[in-house]
Structures
1.
Amino acid sequence: EVQLVESGGGLVQAGGSLRLSCAASGFTFDDWAIGWFRQAPGKEREGVSCISSSNGSTYYAGSVKGRFTISIDNARNTVYLQMNSLKPEDTAVYYCGAVYGSSWLFTACTSKSEDGMDYWGDGTLVTVSS
């Protein structure tokens, strides 16, 4: 059974940092696009950052470039999102998603539909106070 389990969310002051983890089980990181998405109350889910498990290619949304860094540990089947210089507008539930085929990285990460990913985690809440 495929599972994606997010952790690392919490409450942080503006300007602070958090590191999210997405631990995957039930499949190996051979050729997947895995990424982080977020959904704030009343807003659409948006792609934050994605990474290819095969070649390390990455995508970042413009709103997080220079502040967030995505990384992957293939041995641990885990994807991380280091979030620095957090802003109140980063407050959201952060979800991890995975789709088979790294070629889908950009399409899946920019899709407004949940159908862009094959699997989803249950999410972790990030709250940034001003």
2.
Amino acid sequence: QVQLLESGGGSVQAGGSLRLSCAASTYVYCMAWFRQAPGKEREGVAVIRADGTPTYADSVTGRFTISRDDAKNTLYLQMNSLKPDDTAMYYCAAGIGLYDPGDCTLGGASADEYNYWGQGTQVTVSS
């Protein structure tokens, strides 16, 4: 069992920044951030492997940075130049067993293949 606890969400104006954190109860090789806006499907935002290799959705490339501190079992998402379209509930996800680079990448494993999820943290960006 892996427990994930997100923090760092909030309300900001367009152009602002937020940093999300996800504290995991144990080390996980493949971790990711997903988001879901009201009335929309859940979408992958960024994925990171244990070696630090990140992949990003096109919509956030150049603005968001995913990182991890394995000494603290903590995942981060630095979000800059936020846009109203970034408004969503953001979820941290852990992919136990997703060791293949083809799986642990944005567009690789589906959301259903991530075994554990946090409770989510709300990000609201106003124009």
3.
Amino acid sequence: QVQLVESGGGSVQAGGSLKLSCAVSGYTASRPCMGWFRQAPGKEREAVAGISPSSMTTYYPGSVKGRFTISQDNAKNTLYLQMNSLKPEDTAMYYCAGSRPDYCGYHYVGRKASEYTYWGQGTQVTVSS
């Protein structure tokens, strides 16, 4: 059974940095594509980063491009999200997500929540001005 457990959230002032981690377990066959999503109160869940099974393809929406970096350490079964130059509008619950093992091609990264099957419980990020 696939399990995703996020950590690293917290409160930070605008301009600060945080690094989120997601411990991944339960994948036994093909590697999935992985992503980070966020959801603020009253807003839809949105993607903030994605990475292909090969780690060679990444995706960032314009709102975080240049500030957020996704990476994964397959030896440690951990997904990361480095967030720099944080803004108050980055305040949200952040979720780690994984696709089905057979869904993503080696260099493909999903951009939509509907492409991901497994979700963590979330970690709160609060950025104050």
